[in-house]
């Protein structure tokens, strides 16, 4: 029996290693490209570039490699993703939440909830999209872009094609926002002279899709705006875990009502671990070098998961989705700029 287990283990690893090495290589290439000044200035981070390279590879060379690499690629898409989400908690502390204050927390909560609910209404009632695509676009737009879409996918049991469509919307409109927000600040200053650069930073962090996009837009306006934007954004990121828990509970109850049978509990444990890691990180027990290494590992794991998602996505599936997901992404983007701005102004007026 021991001999058999020893023989089987290397064979098991042989099935996984080719796919893991492939996703790691593409993820490393994405990180290298993301470090280039031109792409970094556009706010195109390693995660965005990883899925782009993955989609290109998935529709050219990967079909021939799939028989050898598929097991490792699927492992990266599912399990490495969840591990990456858990480790993402090392980027957040309770001190960051305190820095933005109660008004910042209220702004993020209102922007998140209103954006997700509006996305559901527009996507389902107006555009007649399937609910998984709508939920993914809503999560990505209201919380933290591609990372939120990847984390929400297993909870709603969405296909990789639907996740890729949702990611395309947040990448497109979030990238446009990088150029629009600095121009918008000129008009905001003229209309609302009492608002500070830090206030606009909170607006940027509470309404822009991706962390990299927030950094790029905030950096263009100065250190005060950038710091406030990043803190507000990381607070939104921390809201990902309770969002997943609530969404999973609602789905379970909805399924039970439709079937008339009690549904098994499908709790997103990785979301709970994400919160626990963030709480541990708030104690400041780890040295800076250790945190840097953990974040580098997390970047790799998330990029590998994005690569795997791209490798398993076909252009035919994206084409089949049509124009409606992009229309939904556009409407939500306009809401984030205008409606999110209105929420910021109201909160600053009554709680500032």
Shape descriptor reads: globular
Question: What is the helix/strand order?
Answer: HHHHHHHHHHHHHHHH
Annotation, overall tally of beta strands: 0
Radius of gyration: 21 Å
What share of residues is helical?
over 70%
Give the N-to-C terminal Cα separation: 69 Å
How large is the share of residues in beta strands? under 5%
Give average pLDDT, whole number. 84
Main sheet summary: none
Global structural class: mainly alpha
Number of helices: 16
Task: List segments where confidence is low: pLDDT < 50 over at least 5 consecutive residues.
Answer: 1-8
Descriptive notes:
The protein is mainly α and 352 residues long. Helix content is 84%, strand content 0%. It is built from 16 helices and no strands. Helix 1 (2-34) crosses helix 14 (288-311), helix 4 crosses helix 7 and helix 4 packs antiparallel against helix 14 (288-311). The longest helix is centred in the first third of the chain and has 33 residues, at 2-34.
Task: Briefly summarize what is shown.
With 352 residues, the chain is mainly α. 84% of the residues lie in helices and 0% in strands.
């Amino acid at each position: 029996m021991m001999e058999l287990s020893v023989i089987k283990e290397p064979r098991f690893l042989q099935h996984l290693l080719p796919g893991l090495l492939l996703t790691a290589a593409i993820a490393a290439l994405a990180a290298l490209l993301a470090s280039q000044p031109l792409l970094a200035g556009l706010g195109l981070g390693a995660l965005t570039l990883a899925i782009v390279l993955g989609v290109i590879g998935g529709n050219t060379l990967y079909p021939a490699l799939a028989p050898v690499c598929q097991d490792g690629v699927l492992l990266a898409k599912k399990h490495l993703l969840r591990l990456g989400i858990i480790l993402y908690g090392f980027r957040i502390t309770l001190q960051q939440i305190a820095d933005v204050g109660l008004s910042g927390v209220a702004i993020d909560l209102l922007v998140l909830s209103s954006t997700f609910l509006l996305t559901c209404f527009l996507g389902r009632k107006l555009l007649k999209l399937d609910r998984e695509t709508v939920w993914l676009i809503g999560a990505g737009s209201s919380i933290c872009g591609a990372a939120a879409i990847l984390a929400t996918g297993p909870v709603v049991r969405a296909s990789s094609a639907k996740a890729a469509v949702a990611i395309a919307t947040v990448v497109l409109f979030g990238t446009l926002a990088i150029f629009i927000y600095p121009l918008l600040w000129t008009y905001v200053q003229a209309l609302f002279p009492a608002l500070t650069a830090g206030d606009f930073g909170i607006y940027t962090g509470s309404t822009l899709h991706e962390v990299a996009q927030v950094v790029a837009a905030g950096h263009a306006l100065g250190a005060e705006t950038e710091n406030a934007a990043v803190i507000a954004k990381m607070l939104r990121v921390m809201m990902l875990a309770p969002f997943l828990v609530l969404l999973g509970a609602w789905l379970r109850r909805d399924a039970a009502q439709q079937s008339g049978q009690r549904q098994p509990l499908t709790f997103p444990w990785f979301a709970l671990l994400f919160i626990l890691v963030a709480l541990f990180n708030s104690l400041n027990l780890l040295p800076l070098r250790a945190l840097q290494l953990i974040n580098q590992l997390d970047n790799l794991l998330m990029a590998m998961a994005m690569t795997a998602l791209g490798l398993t996505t076909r252009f035919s599936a994206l084409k089949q989705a049509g124009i409606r997901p992009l229309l939904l992404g556009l409407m939500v983007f306009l809401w984030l700029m205008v409606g999110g701005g209105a929420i910021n102004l109201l909160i600053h007026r009554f709680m500032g």
